[in-house]
Amino acid sequence: MISLPMMLVLYPIHKLWGDPCRRELPTFHWFLLELAIFTLIEEVMFYYSHRLLHHPTFYKKIHKKHHEWTAPIGVISLYAHPVEHVVSNMLPAIVGPLVMGSHLTSITMWFSLALIITTISHCGYHLPFLPSPEFHDYHHLK
Q1: DSSP letter string over 30-67?
Q2: Distances in Å between the alpha carbon of 6 and those of 11, 35, 40, 106, 134?
Q3: b/e code 111-125 from CB counts within 10 Å (16+ = b)
Q4: Per-domain residue ranges for the chain?
């Protein structure tokens, strides 16, 4: 309900930086650079927006909804108040591709990776070769 309208608003803005649907695909090296920049921007923006949402003013009204689930289940990673979804889930993920004027294939790969990693961090299982979600599980118990 929120993601589609926001994408429709952001698409014309994205076109100002470069056509995301251009014919030429990005090279693999360029994609890796984009991925590094996307990750850096997303990590910083998510960290500070999440810290802000833990402030008592915002926690009760907005972020508490996400913490209602204390059992680790991957699907609830995006269970959030609409304001939190925009500020903490969507904006950190989309700013990198907007800044870089990225191709739709880069954006699709980035969103897929971001969603998979977010789901894994909420799944409650320590999977081989992946970061442990134990800290995040503890975070939800508080």
Answers
A1: HHHHHHHHHHHHHHHHHHHHHHHHTSHHHIIIIIHHHH
A2: 9, 22, 22, 19, 32
A3: eeebeeebbbbbbee
A4: 34-134
Q: What region does 71 belong to: left with phi over 0, alpha with psi -120 to 50, or beta?
A: beta
Residue 38 one-letter amino acid: F
Task: For the chain, report the end-to-end CA distance as a whole number of angstroms.
Answer: 29
Cβ proximity of 97 and 38 under 8 Å: yes
One-letter amino acid at 97 equals: P
Q: Is 124 left (phi over 0), alpha (psi -120 to 50) or beta?
A: left
Alpha-carbon distance of 98 to 94, in angstroms, equals: 6
pLDDT by position in tens, the chain (length 142): 677 887 788 788 778 777 777 889 999 999 999 999 999 999 999 999 999 999 999 988 888 877 777 666 777 777 788 898 889 989 999 999 999 999 999 999 999 999 888 888 777 777 777 766 666 555 555 5
